[in-house]
Amino acid sequence: MKISVGNLLSAISHLIDIAQGRREHAPKVTYISLQLSNLLGLKPVEKKKIYYAAFFHDIGITVADKKFITSHIDPNLAKNHCLLGYELLQKLPLDKDIAEFVKYHHEFYNGSGAFGYDHLVTPFASQIINLADQIDITLDFSKPYYQQIEEITNWVLKKKGVLFNPIIAEVFLELAQTDKFWLDLYNPHLRHIVMALSPEDEVYFDIEQMLKFSEAISLLIDNKSPFTHIHSQGVSQTVYTIAKTMELDSEMSNKLKIAGYLHDIGKMVVPNEILNKEGKLTKEEFYIIKSHPYYTKLILSQITAFKDDIANWAGNHHERADSSGYPERLGKDDLSLLDRIVGICDVYQALIEDRPYRRGLPQSTALSIISDMVKNGLFLEEEFLLLKRAVS
């Protein structure tokens, strides 16, 4: 299995945009960064790094609180997501410069940014991404671009040599005079435009590299709550053990392991105060929680290599054999055994973990509860027997 990193980062960035209530932020920052890089005459190898770094620049933002602007202008919040993004990207089989560019994308020319580094220390690529980032959060996309060009260009002029590198600022001012730049930026299909600009020598992950990426993403997701910090790892390991018990081949077993790691990726759209709430959820809060498998399947289905299997296994983990689950109310005739395995492993892992409202349950108690679910038709005996063999 080969996974296009460009395809992967486009899907993940889409989820981040949904979580932050922002339309196509990552593609816009990537587009602006690439246009600046072209006018600056950067070499293809540098533009390739900027392409990936710009798409990944906000991967460390995990708080779905709609405070998009605050997360970009508050120095502590900016520093936090830069560090989280850096730590995640360091674990991936990508050029290490990409992680560095992401780490310092909130630095300003005069040293007033997140880490307090000036232009002499901050990578030039990070300075490009920073200007692109600031342009996008400053623009009001509810208004026509031609009503804002003068205001934007005057602001960049004013901040030249203060927030922005003068060389990059001058190139932006040149770019801002072209209608195509603004029309592309406002194009509802900008993501497709940006994907067409992907490097010719595209980076691909093999299945082992994808496992590392999935584990890193799962840690980012699970760390949204102190009660779920090992949840996805636990689900992934149990699913993998079952796959080996079933004597599935290596690729299928690893695909299931990836589904386990990523089954809760949709939780990035759920606010932390709901995930960590100690009391009973309100009806509205429960509907928000129930949306997460929908977003898991939506995002994973955008990754071509996941579309026909991993996206379903991960996205159907709250569906039940008796059609009482969510978000699609699928039943036993719609769900594969592998769908149901991920679902039953998710329930088991949740039962043995601490939650805001209770302590983790003993293994025997958890299996007894799931046995009752089988008797009531939520799961089938087949996956329950496989689970018991895996955890015994």
From TrEMBL:
<protein>
    <submittedName>
        <fullName>HDIG domain-containing protein</fullName>
    </submittedName>
</protein>
<dbReference type="InterPro" id="IPR006674">
    <property type="entry name" value="HD_domain"/>
</dbReference>
<dbReference type="InterPro" id="IPR006675">
    <property type="entry name" value="HDIG_dom"/>
</dbReference>
<dbReference type="Pfam" id="PF13487">
    <property type="entry name" value="HD_5"/>
</dbReference>
<dbReference type="Pfam" id="PF01966">
    <property type="entry name" value="HD"/>
</dbReference>
<dbReference type="InterPro" id="IPR037522">
    <property type="entry name" value="HD_GYP_dom"/>
</dbReference>
<feature type="domain" description="HD-GYP">
    <location>
        <begin position="206"/>
        <end position="392"/>
    </location>
</feature>
<dbReference type="InterPro" id="IPR003607">
    <property type="entry name" value="HD/PDEase_dom"/>
</dbReference>
